[in-house]
Design a protein that fits this description.
Blueprint (H helix, E strand, L loop, with lengths): L4 E5 L6 H17 L5 E5 L5 H7 L6 E4 L16 H6 L4 E4 L2 H7 L3 H13 L3 E6 L3 H6 L2 H13 L4 H4 L3 E4 L13 H19 L1 H4 L4 E4 L4 H8 L6 E4 L6 H8 L3
Parallel strand pairs: 1-2, 1-8, 2-3, 3-4, 4-5, 5-6, 6-7, 7-8
The structure holds phosphoenolpyruvate (PEP).
The site of phosphoenolpyruvate has 13 residues, from strand 8.
Length: 251
Amino acid sequence: MRKNIVAGNWKMNLNYADAQSLMYQLLEYKKNNQTNCEVYIAPPSLYLTKAKDIFENGEIGIFAQDVSEYQSGAYTGELSVDMLSSININGSLVSHSERRLYHGETDSHANRKIKNLLDKNLTPIYCNGENLDQRKNGDYLEVVGNQTKTALFTLSAEEIKKVVIAYEPVWAIGTGETATAEQAQEVHAFIRDLIANQYGKEVADEISILYGGSVKPENAKEIFSMPDVDGGLIGGAALKIEDFSKIIEGF
Ligand code: PEP
């Protein structure tokens, strides 16, 4: 059975005091509420060790927002998989659309990062999705298909099963414009079929595919109710406990 997951991407937000305060609120929430999904957060890397201390019993999965494609060495500013592993981080987002847009990341980079993470038993949350022009031109399935193949199809069946995919149409990220539940379902089912054709249905059925793009308390339940949507990657609405907890309760 694949997992239902709600993951918060904090991006470059919150100072240290505010980040700790949100972590303690989340810990309190997790202690007092039974959730029907796994909950992850991806805080800024500077706060990862603190997050591991606060969630010392693994109440919430702690993820980096990015990881290097290289193992170690002269790569100023980068974090390696070994470093994340050495403080028991659960995994990392890979190729979020903002990394693609502002840092020139491609699916070939994603492929190398994903392989590195899996080699150390860390979970990649691989992000893909089309931009507005590609949606309007009707090319979106082809775009997402090519992204998925390049980033993932060199993996073995055992490896790909451990990847979490986040379909995040770029036109819906941080814009307030959300894909409809049907639009999300169409692409999620397409990704799952693509994986089933390559690796078999059993493998495809084990992979959690999250939707990301302006998920809010008001729309989470409907989006999560779709058969191939296994949760959400949440940006803005992950920064307030009131909103994030209501999204978690969408399951
Ligand atoms: C994201 O950054 O992954 C995201 C989905 O952002 P938002 O929820 O703010 O659109």
